[in-house]
Specification:
Two copies of one chain form a homodimer.
Chain A: H1 17-41, E1 45-52, H2 58-65, E2 74-78, H3 84-87, H4 93-96, E3 105-109, H5 118-121, H6 127-148, E4 150-158, H7 161-173, H8 183-189, H9 192-205, E5 210-214, H10 218-232
Parallel strand pairs in A: 1-3, 1-4, 2-3, 4-5
Chain lengths: ~230, ~230
């Protein structure tokens, strides 16, 4: 059982930034090659799920880690507030249609986990529904793996509450980042502890394991994700 | 445990055709009204699955039973041989996108069950995959029910081997039915016993129960489906 509070949000002690950045460059190139093979062979597919609090660097991870991937074989799907049509279906409906077909690598920026995170934290659904949805998620992820040869990589973008403050404040102070500022993010921050509890539940009850990615230093985040993918593809 | 060979494919002894047809007319009208309410309220949805051997009268059931339903609230999806894009995904992918949204009644003419029927009979998948798919189907149908308030009605269109012969022969003899004739149907007929075994497995291992609909007399088929729906909506 994972307790997030016990896991560091930073690079391991003594890790060198410069060297890591060099290593990351190589890994990003290696990932690009592996991805090209995946696309050319079209026998399996890859689903990368990025989940984390606001400011945890999901967008930056997409920009930095997949920059050498073949565009034709890459899909990025960002899940926002569900549309009216999406709300009129089960919670996996909008997600299932975007899963990768053979040969593709698809990145989910947020995902079906939102439906047991934000919805739970705000009490829009009760724990019975959270559990049922968790079971449905496990069956769904299992289906993608056994029936379509999909490799699933789920990253929990592990940011500290202090670093989130820095990131959200930057969105106000830095004109180049201001387009990302959203009052709602500050409101969600007030529910920090409940979010941590909800994330822990999701991580501890998933049959497909999560990778806990320390993100307080963005250079280590990039390394961690690139390394995980390049080593396992 | 259901054994199909032990269940009649005909109306119960002494059932009167004329009276049943009159009763069916009333049921079809009642179903039309219930369907209109479903559509107007948009709080739940209905999924009707029709599965059966070639010639078991799935098309006729659609034509006769739903004739009073509100067209705007009715969807018919016929599943044929999967496209290349569909084959490049898990077997539930093409099905999930067509499930009814709240307020809709959707009819599946054939369904995800084909993937544990024809594929099993021809040995394209092994029993381990059949079992995994069966579990995935149960989880999927459960999801639709608990998360989107979908009522699921699954009808196995129970035809005798003798009556199938009559139906397939008519498609050759009757010019009006000739468009339905397909050499492949006669080939599938040779696997009759294996199909019965595969259907029994699907019926006996489904957590959402099936309705076994006797279809040798089409007037009884219409009555059976109309009655089941009108009584349970």
């Amino acid at each position: 059982m994972i307790k997030l509070a016990e896991i560091s949000t930073r690079a391991p002690e003594g890790w060198d930034k410069k060297e890591t950045e060099k290593e990351t460059e190589k890994l990003v190139k290696k990932l690009g090659k592996l991805h090209h093979n995946l696309y050319a062979e079209s026998k399996q597919s890859v689903l990368v799920i990025l989940q984390g609090m606001d400011g945890s660097g999901k967008d930056g991870a997409v920009r930095n880690v997949f920059s050498d991937c073949t565009i034709a074989g890459l899909d990025l799907v960002s899940f926002k507030k569900p549309t009216e049509e999406e709300f009129a279906h089960d919670f996996l409906w909008r997600v299932h249609r975007w899963v990768p077909q053979k040969g593709m690598l698809t990145i989910f920026n947020r995902s079906h986990y939102e439906d047991i995170l934000i919805q739970r934290v705000h009490g829009w659904i009760d724990m019975e529904r959270v559990q049922k949805r968790m079971n449905a998620i496990n069956a769904f992820e299992d289906l993608l793996q056994f029936d379509n040869n999909t490799k699933i990589f789920k990253f929990y973008m592990h940011i500290s509450k202090e670093e989130q403050l820095v990131q959200l404040q930057e969105r106000i102070d830095d004109p180049e980042k201001r387009w990302k500022h959203n009052d709602g993010d500050w409101k969600e921050r007030e529910h920090w502890d409940q979010y941590m509890e909800a994330y822990e539940y999701a991580i501890n009850n998933s049959t497909t394991p999560w990778h806990i990615c320390p993100v307080d230093q963005r250079w280590y985040r990039n390394y961690f994700i690139a390394k995980t993918l390049a080593d396992n593809l």
